[in-house]
Amino acid sequence: MFRIIILSDEKQATTEIEKALAGRGFICLTATNESQIAPPGSRPPDLVLLNTNGPTSYARFRELSAAIKREKKLPVMVALGKEGLESFGLEHAVDDFVTRPFDPAELALRASRLIRQRETHDGGRPITSGELVIDPSRCEVRLGADRVTLTFKEYQLLKFLATHPGRVFGREALLDRVWGSDYYGGDRTVDVHVRRLRLKLEEKGGQFIETVRNIGYRFRDR
What we know:
By secondary structure, this protein is an alpha/beta fold. The protein is built from eight helices and twelve strands.
């Protein structure tokens, strides 16, 4: 059974989400603050769901999502009102979302898809290219002796490209294969993630992702 931690700024909405997911086979845990999300020594959840009730908490939840993906390597969903579609910054901050009032079946389906997508990307043997090592069993990337700290989507993007060295993928293809066909957002998010990924690799002395003009991106094997 999949385990989901829900962090919310509104108790009633949390109860509604718990009911929707628990009735479809998920184990739901609640957290009242960031320190309760996958503390050291505990079993990490399969997914973190952030429930935000309004614009006053958007900045905090954006920062929290970034920290969870960077430090915990966990996928993050957010439940929010429709007014947050433009102002929350969904394409950069979270891996998926639902808007209220949400359909319980859709919420469960999106949560399950995101968790299974992570499992798919995390299986298999380590991928190596020169000094670059992508270790799916640990969700870890190393370049030489240095660990490269990536968000969950950056890791997924790098791993996908590295498993197809030399092959060129357009932005729409990457959105479909890495973010999923039902992702809300334009192909600009691919450019943003590639730029951030390149910077992190270049900081450690590696250049692996090439731009193919007017087409997309490819992984340059060593």
